[in-house]
Design goal:
The complex is a heterodimer.
Chain A (H helix, E strand, L loop, with lengths): L1 H20 L16 H10 L3 E4 L2 E4 H15 L3 H9 L2 H13 L6 E5 L5 H24 L5 H16 L3 E6 L2 H14 L5 E5 L12 E7 L8 H11 E12 L5 H23 L2 H13 L3 H11 L2 E8 L4 E7 L2
Parallel strand pairs in A: 3-4, 3-6, 4-5, 6-7
Antiparallel strand pairs in A: 1-2, 7-9, 8-9
Chain B lengths: L1 H16 L4 H5 L5 H25 L5 H16 L11 H6 L19 H13 L2 H4 L3 H10 L14 H28 L8 H14 L8 H8 L5 H19 L6 H22 L7 H45 L7
Helix pairs in contact in B: 3-4, 6-8, 6-9, 9-11, 9-12, 10-14, 12-13, 13-14
The chains are: A alpha/beta, B mainly alpha.
């Protein structure tokens, strides 16, 4: 009863938010009719042809998911190469930073949504494995001359380690991306504790309270209804679980912003054409970055969904923002 | 400003008396200004909640309440009392407004603030310190004991430092409560007032005894406190501790003595703590003997300083007298 009341309450707040924010210049990220005045929205909602942005285009909401799917289907094979080319390899540092901030403990379950080619999941498994090895080494060093009591204790604790294994689940709506990811995993020889699931971020195929950490790296701007994705994240996280989102955001420094804009619109589609043979997908990519809400607005959206202790930090001067919230 | 916020609190309580259904309609749309307001209100409510336990306990006195309120105000002006977590401003907006407060000042389980939850996690983590040491793993074990995922340790951006600082501030407030209780006893005439030296000796012993359960791992905690980014906080805790001890010992000085007294007690406290780390006698008797000797040293030093001053004055007077006598003898003083 209280939960449904809270949901109703949140929806009321969100609607009032929309009424307040609709006049704000360039308020993207609100999927329902941000270009229409409030009075018309009620009618268009009833009529069922809400529209949203697809890059700088305006498309009906039902179309957007399909077009995003096609984009990623086209780029899946060359996705990693293009990431390296476009960001000059810096995207690896961003993902490493995400893992460092996450600092996963033993036995946590990770859900990587829009994980596609599995970058975050691989790094997660490696981090956890490294931590475990370091702890084992430390324990071994402190037990240079173990008594027979210690040795017998060790035998019993080794069995517990099996239950403490960390697990990562990579979820993506796009089968092509998952296929590429699985190939990569086979190539790297990582298979333990990793699963690949097809699913929609707005409607995850998992039960409530399943995961300790939910990450979405460079995927949430492609979701049609971001608030639904956030609510799903809240649902599948355990109490105390952490939501982490890595996403392109607004550059704070004006000089850097000009350079970044020039680079994005002039260089990236060209690189896309040359390397992947697909100009339009990468045009969509840079446009979708511009349509995504800025750091503060996204932080408010996360708080509205019900997360607490929401913080964000800018990486590379605001090119990428790392948002983190907790389900408490 | 305070009156305005009190009115806000009253308004919230009144609204809480109404039904849950009417609450959403009554909630104003949240602009950032309202958010900031709510944030400040929440913080002050935290302060008032923190004030409530002392005032409800029987040990408070007029001095104590004033002192507490004053220090609470100072802290409210600066950083929040516990940890620098961002205020859940949205928490105010998105919850139905049934704020029910019981006598202890704590609202129901659902309405606990982030800082209270963080304090609970850290307190739970203290139990796992013998096993994991002062580390993030201990906090994770504490969170799991409370039923939260170990990912919630991400809230503690200072990691083990948060755990140690929380423990230190917990010990300090326990000590203040004990000292206030003793003060109250003296006020009521149920106990004899102690001399400052004896009072300080007992206070330092009580405070150091709180470390006994963690004495194995305390060197690790001390090294964490000495990390550069933790030094401001650890110094703050140390200085408030020493200040409290002298305050309850009866010191009301307003001159240079204020500084010298606290410096002396800081030295005594730190050296005794270090001695305690490597003490292996039963019930740390060696440490308490060391403490006795140091306090005695300081008392002797004070007496000696007074004696030296008195002697010095006397010597100077004697020399002046001798000089005048000489001048008389040599006839320099005679006027021609």
């Amino acid at each position: 009863m209280a939960a449904s009341m809270r949901l109703l309450f949140r929806r009321v707040i969100r609607l009032s938010h929309r009424n307040v924010n609709v006049t704000a210049a360039g308020a993207p990220g609100r999927p329902a009719g941000c270009w229409e005045p409030p009075s018309c929205r009620c009618f268009s909602e009833a009529a069922g042809d809400r529209s949203t942005h697809f890059g700088f285009e305006t498309v009906p909401e039902t179309e957007k998911a399909k077009r995003v799917y096609k984009v990623f289907e086209n780029v899946a094979q060359k996705y990693d190469t293009m990431n390296d080319a476009m960001s000059l390899g810096v995207h690896r540092l961003w993902k490493d930073t995400l893992l460092h901030v996450m600092h996963p403990q033993r036995g946590v379950r990770l859900l990587d949504v829009a994980g596609g080619t599995g970058d975050i999941a691989f790094r997660f498994l490696e981090y956890v494995r490294f931590q475990q090895e370091r702890q084992k080494r430390r324990a071994a060093r402190s037990m240079q001359a173990p008594s027979w009591q210690d040795i017998s204790n060790n035998y019993s604790t080794e069995e517990e380690d099996g239950a403490q294994e960390s697990r990562a689940v990579v979820c993506d709506i796009n089968k092509e991306m998952l296929r590429v990811g699985k190939q990569k995993a086979d190539g790297l020889g990582i298979s333990a504790g990793l699963s690949w699931v097809v699913g929609d971020a707005e409607e995850l195929p998992f039960d409530d309270d399943q995961f300790d950490i939910y990450t979405i790296a460079f995927g949430i701007r492609n979701v049609t209804h971001i608030d639904q994705a956030l609510q799903e994240a809240l649902r599948v996280l355990k109490p105390g679980g952490r939501f982490m989102c890595l996403e392109f955001s607004k550059v704070t420094n004006p000089v850097l912003a000009r350079l970044y804009d020039a680079y994005s619109f002039q260089m990236i589609p060209v690189l896309g054409e040359v390397i992947a043979g697909d100009w339009k997908s990468y045009q969509y990519l840079v446009e979708s970055i511009r349509k995504f809400p800025d750091q503060e607005e996204f932080k408010d959206m996360i708080e509205d969904a019900g997360f607490y202790s929401v913080k964000y930090s800018n990486l590379t001067g605001g090119v990428v923002a790392l948002h983190s919230g907790f389900k408490l | 400003m305070a009156a305005l916020l009190r009115a806000l609190r009253v308004g919230r309580a009144l609204r809480g008396l109404g039904s849950v259904v009417s609450a959403p309609a009554a909630q104003p749309p949240c602009s950032s200004l309202t958010r900031g307001f709510h944030r400040a209100a929440l913080r002050l409510q935290d302060e008032s909640k923190a004030d409530k336990p002392p005032s409800s306990s029987p040990s408070s006195t007029p001095y104590h309440e004033h002192y507490r309120a004053h220090s609470a105000e100072q802290e409210a002006a600066g950083a929040p009392q516990e940890h620098s977590a961002s205020e859940p401003a949205a928490e105010e907006a998105s919850r139905p407004n049934t704020s029910y407060q019981d006598q202890s000042g704590e609202q129901g389980e659902e309405y606990e603030t982030e800082e209270q939850l963080q304090a609970r996690i850290l307190t739970a983590g203290l139990e796992f310190i013998p096993l994991h040491g002062w580390t993030v793993e201990a906090i994770a074990a504490g969170a799991e004991m409370l039923g939260l995922s170990s990912a919630s340790t991400g809230m503690f951006y200072n990691g083990a430092g948060d755990l140690v600082l929380h423990f230190v501030s917990q010990c300090n407030s326990q000590l203040t409560d004990i000292l206030a209780e003793q003060h109250n006893q003296i006020q009521l005439g149920q106990a004899e007032p102690k001399k400052p030296a004896e009072f300080l000796r007992d206070a330092v012993e009580i405070r150091l005894r709180m470390y006994i359960p963690y004495i194995e791992t305390w060197p690790q905690a001390m090294s964490i406190l000495l990390l550069p980014h933790n030094i401001p906080d650890s110094l703050k805790h140390l200085s408030t501790l020493v200040d409290d001890m002298w305050y309850y010992a009866g010191d009301r000085s307003t001159d240079m003595n204020w500084y010298t007294k606290r410096a002396a007690l800081t030295g005594i406290y730190n050296t005794t703590e270090l001695v305690m780390l490597q003490d292996s006698s039963s019930d740390f008797q060696d440490t308490w003997d060391f403490l006795d000797n140091r306090i005695q040293d300081v008392v002797n030093m004070a007496t000696t300083a007074k004696q030296v001053q008195a002697t010095g004055e006397t010597v100077v007077q004697g020399l002046m007298g001798a000089a005048v006598t000489l001048k008389n003898l040599t006839g320099l003083n005679q006027r021609r």
